[in-house]
Amino acid sequence: MTITLIVFVLVYVGMGLGGVPGLALDRTGIALLGLITLIGTETMTLNEAAAAVDTPTIALLFALMIISAQFEQSGFYNWIARRITKAGKSPKLLLAVIIAATGLLSALLTNDVVVFALTPVLCASMLALNLDVRPYLVGLAAAANAGSAATLIGNPQNILIGQAGKLDFWNYILFALPPTLVTLAIIFFVILVTWKLVPASRIENSAPAALDRYQLGKALLAVTALIALFLTPLPREVSALTIAGTLLLSRRLSSRDMIGAVDWHLLLMFTCLFGVTEAFSKTGLAQQGLAYLGQHGLYPDHLSMMAPVSILASNTIGNVPFVVLFIKLLPNLGAGALYGLALLSTFAGNLLLTGSMCNIIVAERAELQGAKLSFADFGRSGVPITLLSMAATAAWLITTNLLIP
Length: 405
Description:
Layout: H1 2-17, H2 27-40, H3 46-52, H4 55-73, H5 76-85, H6 91-109, H7 111-128, H8 134-148, H9 156-165, H10 169-194, H11 213-229, H12 236-248, H13 255-260, H14 264-281, H15 285-295, H16 303-329, H17 335-348, H18 357-368, H19 375-399
């Protein structure tokens, strides 16, 4: 038990710090090292670690990344980034288009994948227009988080929640759409208030981005087919894998390139966290802690606890590790609590730059283009965005009687 507790604490502290001082070790490396330690000390066997992995969740996330790779290979992300920046002479319109387009794409194609592809091309286009890219990068990251909350395939934590609770795909969308749209509007108006947007000093005259309409057509057909399959009893992961496998049957796009576009680091981090949290769950400490909270009227599945815990955990260990832990420790949550967890954990990720993997991807990809988004830059808008969106979501959850206050 001692080894398990030490490993668990160190892994989740590492998740919060984002690395280990003095070592080139990122979140994925920390999670992997934690699992290796548990296996190496024989605290957990390799078979137990494998059994702890939620394979359908990993399979669904992998398949969605393949579908997104089809869009990327078609040149769609470059094309849409160029189209967005055509609004550069009107900064308000540019911001609105970035938020709307990113929110929509993130709901369908998983937010981490969308910002990974969009950030560099948007940055390059906006820098060519002599724009201050920081408010638009905040809008990009915040909208990707918010838009992803609208569906059960929009982000990794929602995929996990949907799979764990066997939630209906369409019922969730109907419930999540109102607070998502409100949050997207909040993002737009908060950025207008917290930043001074200046029109572009010159028009970009670069050639339009190439778009392979045939490959884009395949990508759109794939998404349409996926949505249609979600209407059938076929498990979501099987539906997505079927579509992904079909896309790999291409004469023009290399399967190596398609598979190479998968974020294997994220999948590995997920896999390792399943093992680490399973080992901690077996110690019984978490269950004792939850029982103590219940005895004092502090129920984790009630809004009064879930909202502040989501904000705290999402901005320390990250919303994906937080949801992995929450689901593992509370495996019998009802649909109402799971709906609330999906919305609250996602919107909470907009508070700080470290609140979600999506934010970190935007900052890192932008820096490679010569645009720096600092912790303070993000927090300037992120704090009011999160507080307002969490308040609106809490009001929605109470109004609909889906989550106990």
